Amino acid sequence: MASMKELQQQLEAKAARLAAIQKDIGKNHQVRRQYTIQHGENEMVQKELELLEEDANVFKLIGPVLVKQDLAEAKANVNKRIEYILAELRRMEGTLKTLEEQQRNSQEEVMKLQQRIQLAQTGKAKS
């Protein structure tokens, strides 16, 4: 059977891994929130572009300059951007599911180690 010191070291390592996973989950939630906001903004732009007449002037902001852009090109760019954002959101969902599963497993491992330590301590106390 592992010594108390070894169990403590294992517990610390597992707890550190759990903390790292939780940090990654937080970062992924933040990135997903940003993509969700961008998706909403781009859908608004897409709806606005659909309202325009074919001969309407469309300008794109590049740095400090407004550059005239073809309406069809502007619509295509927005559509591509929306497709990219949706693909990233799907990827983020998969990553989050994986991380949440790792978090559950890591929490279980930490709890099992804590129980082993408690059992070992109560065994020493009875001796």
UniProtKB/TrEMBL annotation:
Keywords from UniProt, A to Z, are: Chaperone, Coiled coil
- Keyword Chaperone carried by entry: yes
- Gene3D superfamilies (alphabetical): 1.10.287.370
Write out the coiled-coil annotation as residue ranges. Answer: 82-116
A Pfam family assignment: Prefoldin_2
Q: Does the keyword Transmembrane apply?
A: no
Q: Superkingdom of this entry's organism?
A: Eukaryota
PANTHER family assigned: PREFOLDIN SUBUNIT 6 (PTHR21431)
Family to which the UniProt record says this protein belongs: Belongs to the prefoldin subunit beta family.
Supply the name of the protein: Prefoldin subunit 6
User: Which species is this record about?
Assistant: Sphagnum troendelagicum
